[in-house]
## 1
Amino acid sequence: MSKKNLGDLLIEYNLITQSDLTEALNIQHQGNKKRIGEILVELGKVTEEDIQYLISKQLDIPFIFLRDIKLDNDLIKKFSRDFLVNNRIIPLYETADLLSVATNDPFNSEAINKLKEFTGKDISVSACSSKDILQKLKSLQNVFLGEINEVIENLLKKLTKTSFYRLDFIFRGKLTINIFGTFTMQTYTEIDPGNITVEDIFKYFENLEHGFFYENFNYDSGFLIQIYPVIETKDISFINEFGIYPDKFPIFTDTKYAGNLPVFQSDYPVPGYAYISFKKYSEFKDAINVIDNLHEKLPENYLACTKCKICSGSKCDECNNLGYTFEVKNG
C-alpha cells in the first residue's frame, strides 16, 4: 500500500495544486465530514474517475471500467439491488472462497463486512466510479425482476375471464403469490427471486394502461401487497371478474390507486359519484362492492368458481393450472 495520502498523490499526478488541496482541507476543518476527495470533486478540481484511480494507487488495488468486463447476472441477482445501489457496489465474479466486487468507496468497511457475512467468503475489492456502477445496475434492472415479471405476465393471461380479482404478493425470504376472489383463495406459485422490495412488484403493474388498486403492509421480515389490476373498464355494479372496473368517472374508493384514471381515495362515499368499497360492504346507493363482501343473496349472473373436476383443485392443464373452472350462475 502506498504511504502517500490522496492529496499528495493528486498533486504528484498534476491533477490539483497545493492551493486546491489547502482550500479543500480548510472546508474539511470547518466541520465538513466528507472525505477530501469528495470535497475536491464538489469544488470541480477533479473528476470522480480521477479520485477512484488515485485511491486504487493509494490502496494498491485495481481500477476498472465496467464496460470492459462481462458480468455474471446470476451472481448479481443474489444480492439486494437496494444494497448494491446504496453502497455503490457491484459483484464481478466469485470462486469457492472469494467474491470480487467493484465499488466507488473501498473504505466502506461496513458494506464489505456485510458481503463477507452474507457469502462466507473473502472479499476482493476493485475501485470504480459510482457513475459507472449506477449505470450498469440500472441497465441490469430486468436481471433482478425478470423471473417475477415473467410469472406475473403469465398469471395475468390465465386470469382473464376468471372470478379471481386480487393478487397477493407475500415476501418472507421467498415470494408467495396467491390469487383471491369469489370466496376462494389459491396459492398460485412460490419463487425465490432473491431480495426484492415493494417497489419491485409495483414496477410491473405500472405498465398497465389503466393502473391498479392496492394495499401494502410492511413487516420486519418482509411485506404483503394486495393488488387489484385494472385491465378494462365497463358498466358494472359489483366486482366479480378479473381486471374489470366501472367506466363512470371520477370514482372514489376506500383503498389506494396508482394510475392515470380519475380515482380518489376516501374513507366514505361521496354523494353523486361511484364508490368502490374493497374493505367492507357498503350500502351507499352508488357503491360498487367486491362480491366477497356481499352478505345477502348473491346478485344475478355472477361468475362462480368451482374446483376443477379433473384435478380436484390440485391444478392441471384442463383448468389452466388454476385449480378452478368458472361459470355464470344466478344468485
## 2
Amino acid sequence: MSRMAVLPEHPAHDDLRRRWRSAVSVALPASGPGPESDTAAGPAGSPQPGPGAVELDRYADDLLGRWAEPQRRYHTTDHLVAVLDRIDELAEYADDPDLVRLAAWFHDAVYLPERSTNEERSARLAERALTELGHAPARTAEVARLVLLTLTHDPDDEDRDGAVLCDADLAVLAGAPDAYAAYAAAVREEYGFVPDDAFREGRAAVLRRLLELPRLFRTPHGVREWEEPARQNLTTELTLLTAQDASTARDRTDDPAAGPADGPSVPARDAADSPAASARDTADSPAASARDTADSPAASARDTADGPVDGSAGATAG
C-alpha cells in the first residue's frame, strides 16, 4: 500500500489492531494454517480459508492511517477509540456488537471537513474492504447501512444496532464541561477555513436543532446517563455563541467602516454528522490520495472519483 508519509503510531495502535481483528474475524471464514495463511482450500463445497492476521493487520493499518490524517482535529484516532469504548459500554443493547464495532471503524474513515459526502464514501469503503476480506454480503451491507446512519443519527426505534452506534458517536456531547470545551475547540479548529461569523451561525443552528429534539440518545444507558449533561453542554455552547454574535454586532455598529465578514457561509446541516461536522468529502485528503489510487490488498477499499467541493462548511454536533 502506498503512503505519502509515514505517520507516527497512536499509543493504542497495537490494541486497536487487536480490536479490529476481533471484530472483523467474527464473520470471516476460518483462517488457514498460519498467520499469513490465505491458501489451503477446503473440500468442495466447504468454506474457503479467510485472511490471516498479517492480512487483517494491513487493513487495520490502512484505516488507522486514515484516522491519523493531518486535516483532522476532532475526527482523529482518539475519536475512534472513544466510540469503540462507548460501544463496549453499550454492547448489551446491540443485537450484533461486533457489527457495530466494524461500522465504528469505518464511520469517519473518509473525512475532509470541506466536503459533503464523507459518510457515503466511508460506506463505500466499508463495502469494498469487507467484501475483499470475505464478509457475507448481508453483513457487509448492514455495516454500510450503519455507517450511513451517522449522517442523521436517527435510527428507528427497533434498530438496536443503529441506536448503539449513534449513541456512542454522540456520547462526546455528554462529557464533563472541560472535555466538552476541548471537543468544541477541536471542531472549530477542524473548520479553521470558515470565517468566525459563518461558523457561529451554522454551529448555532445545529445546536438549536439538537436541543429541539425530543431525545438525543436512544439506548436506556444513553437516556439515563448522557441526555441531561449533553443538553446542558449544548445550551452552554449556544449561549456563548449567541453572546459572541451580539458582541460582534455591537462592534460593527460602533465601527461603520467595518463590513460583513467575507467567506463561505455555513449551512445548518443535520444534527447528524459524526461528533463534530457535516461538510464532508468526496475526494480524499492529501495524505490519503496516494492510497486511494493504490491497488494493494489493503488499499483497494477505495473510491478515486472526486465529487464537487462543498464551498461552505457545516458545523454539526456529531
